[in-house]
Write a structure and sequence with these properties.
disordered C terminus; Na+/H+ antiporter like fold; membrane; 0% strand; single chain
Length: 431
């Protein structure tokens, strides 16, 4: 019976993934909102009691499913970015300046603020830090309405006016990997005790070493695949000529695997692989084809996860939620993230070098959508240190994700339309 229900949920997700984008295109409502609501309604029906919904009993499955969703999304996000990043070009780095500020200032401030709120609410220090870390990354999966639509090809001319969407997209692509060191702070606090026992190891390996390994692995894999796809001496290996877009899946799996095997952060490897591959033959239509494959798979997996999340919400996932969890979740969405984002973006860069107007700064600070990545990090940490897999944390993180889906989903269409009234907010294929 349980297996049959999984097929039913997967089929419903696929159908909704096909029809929802066009149905909701002009409404202030998003596909994730609908999926969570439908799931909650399904959860209220007379379903079997043995459904695999308890996060404590199904932690490993949750970890691997959400892990797959995130890496597929990271590949799609990396391929969607038209703005190149040349490691030896300072001007190129300056054009990403808003992204760097959100990552270097906004994310650590958000982590610290949420951790302090958790500690004030009575959490142990390790659990408080974990709460801040898992809720820190913005989500590349659920934020499609405020991100770039996809790669431009043909006569390529990067739209320098679209700073807001570029900033939110690139931030989401990078901070899913950069939150990992802070998750490890919580794990090490829970398993190794005092900071003096592991502080230097954390800085040298978890903060610097694993980030560098992940980035280098992604660059190397991306360059190798680009050479094979576009410039290989063997015609059979030049898959770009044949338009074989499934290379997107091979790229994300290979880069993630290489990054993880070498001991780095696989999320960073996938994203850097994608932007490295995107930098090769940038006007080639093959990039759009690869992005479409990643986007469609991401949409299907995301809607499946959200439908299951909705079912779980009305089947006991929120049983441990109390006023403290509600307050922390709403504080993050309405106060902490906007304040941290504005702090990071307060110094405006020159226009054309990652500069945002004041309204765009407020929008970039506010639209820090939380989502599937937070579930993955919590499941991963609970596997490394079981004492961190508290029911209260699962309930609070789930509530925060749903609240973010609702608040940001309702506001994204009108806000983005006001900031860019001439833009079609829902081009074909977007959620």
């Amino acid at each position: 019976m349980t297996a049959d229900l999984v097929y039913l949920v997967a089929g419903a997700s696929l159908l909704l993934a096909i029809v929802l984008p066009d149905l909701l295109a002009r409404w202030a409502i998003s596909a994730p909102m609908v999926l969570v609501g439908v799931g909650m309604l399904i959860g209220l029906t007379s379903l079997p009691d043995d459904l695999p919904l308890d996060p404590q009993d199904n932690r490993a499955a949750i970890e691997h499913v959400t892990e797959l969703v995130v890496i597929v999304a990271l590949m799609g996000v990396g391929l969607a970015l038209d703005r190149p990043l040349h490691l030896r070009d300072r001007a190129s780095w300056r054009r990403w300046s808003a992204t760097w500020r959100l990552l270097a200032i906004g994310m650590p401030v958000s982590i610290a603020a949420v951790a302090l709120l958790g500690w004030a609410a009575g959490l142990a220090p390790a659990a408080a830090v974990l709460l801040g870390a898992v809720l820190a990354p913005t989500d590349p999966v659920l934020a499609s309405d405020v991100q770039v639509a996809g790669p431009q090809t043909g006569d390529l001319e990067v739209d320098e006016r679209d700073e807001l969407r570029f900033t939110l997209t690139s931030e989401a692509g990078l901070n899913d990997g950069l939150a990992f060191p802070f998750v490890y702070v919580a794990i090490l606090m829970a398993t190794e005790g005092a900071v003096s026992n592991w502080g230097l190891e954390w800085v040298g390996y978890y903060l610097v070493g694993k980030i560098m390994i992940g980035v280098v692995a992604g660059i190397v894999v991306g360059r190798i695949l680009a050479v094979l796809a576009f410039r290989s001496a063997s015609r059979s290996l030049r898959v770009a000529e044949r338009g074989e877009s499934l290379l997107a899946l091979a790229a994300l799996i290979a880069s993630y695997g290489v990054g993880e095997v070498l001991g780095g952060y696989g999320f960073l490897a996938v994203f850097t692989c994608a932007i490295t591959f995107r930098s090769a033959e940038r006007s080639h239509d093959y990039h759009a084809a690869m992005h479409e494959v990643a986007e469609r798979l991401e949409r299907l997996l995301t809607l499946f996860v959200l439908l299951v999340l909705g079912i779980a919400l009305t089947r006991g996932l929120l049983d441990a939620l109390d006023w403290r969890g509600v307050a922390i979740g709403l504080a993050l969405i309405l106060l902490v993230r906007p304040a941290a984002g504005m702090l990071a973006l307060a110094i405006r860069a020159k226009q054309g070098e990652g500069g945002l107007s004041r309204p765009q700064q407020w929008a970039a600070a506010f639209f820090g959508v939380r989502g599937v990545g937070s579930i993955y990090y919590l499941a991963y940490a609970a596997g490394e240190a079981p004492e961190l897999g508290q029911d209260w944390l699962w309930s609070t993180v789930s509530f925060t994700i749903v609240a973010s889906v609702l608040v940001h989903g309702v506001l994204s269409t009108p806000v983005m339309a006001r900031l860019d009234p001439d833009r079609d907010l829902h081009p074909e294929g977007r959620e």
